[in-house]
């Protein structure tokens, strides 16, 4: 299933492209620093806020040849950060190989993990694999209470997450050293995220006092009106209100630093996108649009395919896959 | 002949009926929340002073912005302002306050409101004591 719902048809807000304060920000920088690799839509969870509608029924899985092209692109283009995501990336049968090859590039490597794949049979070795290779982890934990967390991610997921976080702490993660453990907050509905600094403070206090868990940073990410979250907005009658909320919170100063200006996103089949959200919409980049070609192409600015969903990355302090830009 | 009670019931119903015909389906329209600033139309100086004060009140201070919106939500319930409840429920959510925490806050409002009702019972008792004949 490829969810192609968009918010382009809504006439209640101006088109995003008309809100960009300086058109030079409508292009990427010539030197791309971040390669985000989506190794597949398969996931053991079916989170309600997932913009890619990932789940156990998805079949899209990145093959080894595309992964090799990604490694080649990192080496040839001097990529500084390799950001591995999914789905649950660990479910890709070539994941372990890809992870080690990624480390060999010398780039900083992060994995976006739902965590609860790590206690499934056949995946118990992965936390140590992460720790032994200094992998930075970004783990979804939409709230610090069981009810609110499980409302988004499924019954029992919070308790499993707590157990896995304790295990990661035992391995040295989240203690302010080299093994970075960052958590992600997503709003549990049609509203914007809290101040990242304030919420991080709450998370830190609650998780430590109630569960003995420590972590490095909390990233607050604005839900993007694509995929399964779009369906929620549409079915609950919140779509117009949410888009107005995003538009009314539009901060022109955030456009210069919007993440698609410094990153590019690779889909499971090797197609390129400006970001994971455009990937959800099936909006391939303009120009060279495969990782195999891009690996060998000269560095140049790329016109970005903006849409009204981009108001989610430019509301308030701005939002990216690395949290708020505050 | 109508009783006083009938009068009290009758007129509000008639009034609601009239408003439905003229304005739509309710006294309170959620869209009116966005028109709040129109209150400044005939007294712009006062409005500017009010809105400046209002914005300052909700800035981070000795209380955090999060604590202030929780207070605002509780007060909104006490004054029973549907616009404020709408605005500050959303604001609480956007400050990372969950439903359980919000519910605790409005219980605080309810407790104070209930307590305020009951403490006036002391006045009632004072008057009873003054007016009633006591046992010898």
List segments of chain B where confidence is low: pLDDT < 50 over at least 5 consecutive residues: 1-22
Output the radius of gyration of chain B: 21 Å
> How much helix is in the residues of chain B?
55-70%
Task: Report the mean per-residue pLDDT of chain B as an integer.
Answer: 85
Strand and helix order of chain B: HHHHH
**Any idea what the shape of chain B is?**
extended
Number of strands of chain A: 10
What level of helicity do the residues of chain A show?
25-40%
The parts of chain A where pLDDT drops under 50 for at least 5 residues are none
Secondary-structure-derived class of chain A: alpha/beta
Characteristic terms for this protein:
heterodimer, A: 326 residues, alpha/beta, eight-stranded mixed beta sheet, two-stranded antiparallel ribbon, B: 136 residues, mainly alpha, 5 helices, 0% strand, disordered N terminus
Write a structural description.
The complex is a heterodimer of chains A (326) and B (136). Chain A has 326 residues and is α/β, with parallel strands linked by helices. Chain A is 30% helix and 12% strand. In chain A, the strands form 2 sheets. In chain A, strands 6-5-4-3-2-1-7-8 form an 8-stranded mixed sheet. Chain A is globular and about 50 Å long. The model of chain A has no long low-confidence stretch (mean pLDDT 94). In chain B, helix 3 runs antiparallel to helix 4 and helix 3 (65-79) packs across helix 5 (99-131). Chain B is built from 5 helices and no strands. The relative contact order of chain B is 0.06. The chains are: A alpha/beta (326), B mainly alpha (136). The interface between A and B is medium-sized, with 16 and 11 residues.
């Amino acid at each position: 299933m490829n969810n192609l719902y968009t918010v382009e048809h809504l006439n209640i807000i101006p088109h995003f492209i008309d809100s960009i304060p300086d058109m030079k920000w409508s292009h990427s920088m010539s030197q791309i620093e971040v390669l985000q690799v989506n190794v597949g839509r398969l996931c053991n969870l079916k989170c309600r806020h997932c913009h890619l509608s990932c789940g156990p029924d998805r079949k899209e899985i990145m093959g080894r040849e595309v992964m090799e092209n990604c490694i080649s692109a990192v080496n040839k283009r001097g990529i500084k950060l390799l950001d591995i995501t999914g789905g649950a990336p660990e479910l890709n049968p070539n994941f372990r190989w890809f992870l080690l090859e990624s480390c060999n590039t010398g780039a900083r490597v992060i994995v976006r993990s739902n965590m609860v794949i790590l206690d499934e049979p056949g995946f118990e070795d992965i936390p140590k694999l992460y720790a032994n290779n200094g992998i930075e982890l970004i783990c979804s934990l939409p709230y610090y209470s069981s009810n609110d967390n499980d409302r988004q991610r499924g019954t029992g997921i919070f308790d499993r997450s707590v157990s896995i976080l304790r295990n990661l702490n035992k391995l040295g993660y989240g203690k302010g050293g080299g093994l970075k453990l960052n958590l992600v907050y997503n709003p549990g509905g049609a509203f914007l995220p809290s101040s990242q600094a304030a919420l991080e403070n709450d998370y830190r206090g609650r998780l430590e006092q109630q569960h003995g868990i420590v972590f490095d940073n909390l990233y607050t990410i604005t839900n993007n009106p694509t995929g399964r979250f779009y369906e929620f907005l549409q079915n609950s009658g919140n779509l117009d209100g949410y888009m107005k909320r995003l538009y009314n919170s539009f901060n022109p100063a955030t456009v210069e630093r919007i993440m698609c200006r410094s990153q590019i996103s690779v889909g499971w089949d090797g197609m390129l996108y400006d970001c994971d959200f455009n990937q959800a919409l099936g909006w391939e980049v303009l120009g060279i649009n495969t990782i195999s070609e891009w690996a060998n192409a000269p560095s140049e600015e790329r016109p970005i395919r903006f849409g009204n969903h981009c108001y989610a990355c430019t509301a308030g302090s701005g939002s990216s896959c690395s949290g708020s830009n505050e | 002949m109508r009783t006083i009670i009938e009068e009290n019931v009758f007129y509000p119903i008639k009034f609601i009926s009239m408003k439905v015909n003229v304005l739509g389906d309710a006294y309170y329209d959620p869209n009116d929340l966005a028109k709040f600033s129109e209150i400044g139309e005939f007294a712009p100086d006062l409005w500017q002073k009010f809105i400046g004060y209002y914005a300052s009140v909700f800035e981070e201070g000795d209380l955090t912005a999060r604590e202030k919106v929780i207070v605002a939500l509780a007060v909104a319930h006490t004054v029973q302002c549907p616009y404020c409840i709408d605005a500050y429920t959303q604001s609480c959510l956007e400050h990372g306050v969950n439903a359980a925490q919000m519910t605790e806050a409005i219980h605080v409002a309810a407790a104070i409101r209930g307590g305020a009702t009951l403490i006036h019972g002391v006045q009632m008792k004072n008057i009873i004591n003054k007016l009633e004949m006591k046992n010898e």
